[in-house]
């Protein structure tokens, strides 16, 4: 058995025993520090880009203070695009070292520039741009780390880290402004130190980075609608974050946002460990209701009502954010993709949507205070028009993008029977985690017949199914549903349904029965 086989079996055994390696725990602590740094940077009254330029006068031509955030967002977006294009070079040891020390150097330069030359607008914008580039490097590095921890633990660990970061952010809101600034920048240095230790002490961290971009692109199955959905939900988060950051509410607004993020992470933790109710289909149905609940209070002038709306946006769309990170990390792990290449693409969509949402909020609530653009409409009517526009965008987006991508699984097998079947199916042996283990064992134990396996292989070959899709097809042909496949292959529910959808799409069928009929009609001589 090869090295990959042994590694896959060891991973499955680790999943079963529940043992978490020390380097994973250390890395998750570093990832939590990174998230804390990001949260504080975007919502803390003492550290946000708007606060960094609060001493500057807002001119009648350029609202310097309120456009500061966009300088950082533009730098993040451009950096992500460039890093995605240069993924092969950045995936080497030298490239990783460049990003680690580059982020540390850029953050330090930014702090020096804002501290000593912050009164000069051009220098301040440049300092925030440097901060954006550093943020890009940290996004890509920590994303690669998430892709090497246990498949079934990625969602749970991500939710725990987000919740812990939200709690630390809440605590930092009550620090003295000067202390808050220095501690925030210290978090950046600490998180990069954690990543450097994990990367150089534990070689498995380098696996997602060692894949060439060309190979990664051939195996990636990210669809256009999925990418657009990332942009759309990021619009809501960008709107909420910008609203919190620009309102004169002291710590009240950031505190509400932090509590909403904390609650969102708790919901994901409970669901991933006990209830298993959250799915793409459920989130699709709730998108429009929650954006209505979040934006309708904005049509009023009462600050408390508006904050409740913002809290609802944070609560719901942070759940989607957590699920999206986990799903992308699992996609990288399962299909052996280049993490910088994939996350450069995915996170650039996040930043683009975030920027659009922030700019919409700027037009609705900040621009009328700076320019006389509302005219005879009045500031509130102008804001209502902008809000109705974003509601229209979401309404169209929900109907076009957030459709149910996956066929409905109509299996009626009793859960206890599935559990019994699975135990007999495994027979105490290690379940396959990849096509390497499948090849080594000669297929799944308890197969119906060699002829049936040949039919599955013939169909896979004819329609160009991947090795993992071949495994899923075999289980579908045996009458298994998505929940069984999720447990059997040690993947998330989202990933299992994604594989089923891709099989249906490639073969042109619409149900499992049609798939079985196609298999029965296969000429096994062709396989």
* Overall pLDDT metric: 76
β-strand amount: under 5%
Low-confidence region ranges? 1-17, 55-62, 403-449
CATH architectural grouping of the largest domain: Up-down Bundle
Helix content: over 70%
CATH class of the largest domain: Mainly Alpha
Q: Please give the number of β-strands.
A: 0
| SSE run | HHHHHHHHHHHHHHHHHHHHHHH
- CA-based gyration radius: 25 Å
Q: What's the tally of helices?
A: 23
Which structural class should the secondary elements be placed in?
mainly alpha
The biggest sheet, with number of strands, parallel, antiparallel or mixed sense and barrel status, is:
none
- Termini separation: 25 Å
Assigned CATH superfamily of the largest domain = MFS general substrate transporter like domains
Task: Report what the structure shows.
The chain is mainly alpha-helical and 527 residues long. It has two domains: 20-400, MFS general substrate transporter like domains (Growth Hormone, Chain: A), CATH 1.20.1250.20; 415-526, Winged helix-like DNA-binding domain superfamily/Winged helix DNA-binding domain (Arc Repressor Mutant, subunit A), CATH 1.10.10. It is 74% helix and 0% strand. It contains 23 helices and no strands. The chain has helices spanning 3-17, 22-43, 49-52, 68-85, 87-90, 93-117, 121-146, 154-172, 177-201, 213-219, 224-246, 252-275, 280-295, 303-335, 339-370, 379-400, 415-426, 435-441, 450-463, 467-477, 482-489, 493-507, 512-520. The longest helix is centred in the middle third of the chain and has 33 residues, at 303-335. It is globular and about 75 Å long.
